[in-house]
Design a protein that fits this description.
Chain lengths: 331, 141
């Protein structure tokens, strides 16, 4: 544990020293992952579905805030949808306006929540998002997660129905039927409602418990969140009659649990064995204060004392005399 | 010589100015009630636009069904149902607005308090330094 704490301190110091370089690199990596994910799943416009384009866009995003990344990702998605079908592009545009109204109204600073949610869905570990956001962000970051989830299910629906949606046919009926097909992915998608409901509730549960004034609040929050999420999703899938999801839910929640404990180690590592309970008063109040110190190992203040130098080494004779034993015993 | 404590407070207020200053400005200007009322008003507009868009999408989605029933439809009942949906949607949307901006106001207010506390301390330090510079000062002892 001490080694881990030392490592954490070293990483924190390293980040503090090189923040100017590390932050853009992280932004670049996230943006690159987002654009590559879009290209791999819905790459219908060949001219922009190229790695160099993704690299250039990711480089742009590395120097701009997360909201710029959202705008660029939306623009790329719209272009891909336009290449697939004009009707799908129109519906996507309306959906994005809805998402923006929700996102910029409530959580304009939670851009990474919106971007990482579809990415985690693609990596089959979306259950990390409610745990992570519930632990380190405010409760209203649930809106960012909702936006990301809706966009993922919408794009997934487009991908699954791409052959139908790309079919040519200038008839008005064909256009309407395309819109109906694509809207059906949103309005009639019961799995999306289930995942949205359970993940949003999990985020709120995790947030409420970790803010409680109880010992090991974060651990309790993580365990409760994982249990709630696993049971909720498995029960929901059973009710909806969707099969083959149990292992995915269990493994995904296992990974989410590990990620959540990692976050706890990084952001909330307390040493409960040194808890202090203080009591004092002023003119108006009595104060009952519980102070829990952070587990901390100062890396630079370590003093290394060397033992075992030749000139200081105890001779067997000396050691035997000090221990009051026969020197032969030490052979 | 650099006053380290003052420097610490100055870094704090500079951090606030750069990161949270703009977002926390309404917390300095409005009382909680006024702030939430203003946000409710804004949410009323955005919520109505959202509902309009959702209604439009639903209209296209159910166009075939609507076309079939348009002649036999009880228009009064249809509009009442729509209004009820609108009311329900706005209730959820405005309640969410209330909760979110209540939390935001509390958090922002805490930051503003910390900002002014640092500002006060810096001010006191400057005043003390000024007094020390003046001749015949008694605070020197």
């Amino acid at each position: 544990m001490t080694t881990l704490l030392e490592l954490k301190e070293k990483i924190v110091r390293f980040y503090g020293k090189n923040e100017v370089f590390i932050t853009p690199v992280i932004r670049f990596l996230i943006a690159f992952a987002v654009f590559m994910s879009i290209n791999s799943r819905i790459g219908y416009m060949k001219s922009i579905t190229r790695t160099p384009v993704a690299l250039i866009l990711a480089l742009l995003c590395s120097v701009f805030p997360a909201n710029c990344m959202i705008f660029l990702a939306s623009a790329v998605i719209l272009a891909q949808m336009y290449a697939l079908s004009l009707e799908v592009c129109a519906v996507t545009l309306v959906l994005f306006v809805l998402v923006y109204l929700l996102y910029f109204r409530f959580v304009p600073k939670n851009g990474y929540g919106v971007l990482l949610t579809p990415l985690c869905f693609q990596l089959h570990v979306p259950y990390m998002m409610p745990m992570g956001l519930g632990l380190v962000r405010e409760v209203y970051s649930v809106f960012a997660m909702i936006c990301g989830t809706v966009v993922y299910f919408f794009l997934n629906g487009v991908r699954e129905n791409a052959p139908v949606l790309s079919g040519t046919g200038g008839e008005e009926d064909a256009a309407v039927s395309k819109i109906v097909v694509i809207l059906n992915q949103l309005i009639g998608n019961k799995e999306m409602y289930l995942v949205l409901g359970v993940m949003a509730a999990t985020l709120v549960v995790v947030y409420v418990i970790r803010r409680m004034s109880i010992e090991y609040a974060w651990t309790v929050a993580i365990v409760s969140g994982i249990l709630f999420q696993s049971v909720g999703l498995i029960a929901g899938y059973l009710l909806l009659g969707i099969t083959g999801k149990t292992y995915e839910v269990l493994i995904g929640n296992g990974v989410a649990c590990l990620a959540a404990f990692f976050l706890q180690f990084v952001f909330f590592n307390l040493d409960y064995s040194r808890t202090e309970r203080l009591q004092f008063e002023d003119d108006e109040y009595y104060y009952y204060v519980k102070a829990v110190p952070k587990a901390f190992v100062p890396g630079t203040d370590k003093k290394v004392k060397r033992f075992g130098r030749d000139e200081e080494r105890l001779s067997k004779k000396q050691f035997a005399r000090e221990m009051d034993i026969d020197e032969d015993w030490l052979e | 010589m650099v006053n380290e404590e003052r420097l610490r407070h100055m870094i704090k207020i500079s951090g606030f100015d750069t990161n949270d200053g703009k977002a926390c400005r309404p917390m300095m200007q409005y009382a909680r009630k006024d702030y939430i009322s203003l946000q409710l008003l804004r949410s009323f507009v955005t919520g109505t636009i959202c509902f309009g868009l959702v209604l439009g999408l639903w209209g296209v989605y159910s166009m075939e069904k609507l076309m079939k029933q348009i002649n036999s439809m009880d228009l009064k009942e249809f509009i009442t149902t729509l209004l009820m949906f609108y009311g329900g949607f706005m209730l959820v949307y405005l309640t969410s607005t209330c909760i979110v901006f209540h939390v935001k106001y509390t958090a922002g207010r805490r930051k503003v308090k910390r900002y002014y506390s640092s500002l006060r301390k810096i001010n006191r330090m400057y005043e003390r330094e000024e007094r020390l510079k003046m001749p015949g000062d008694t605070d020197r002892e």
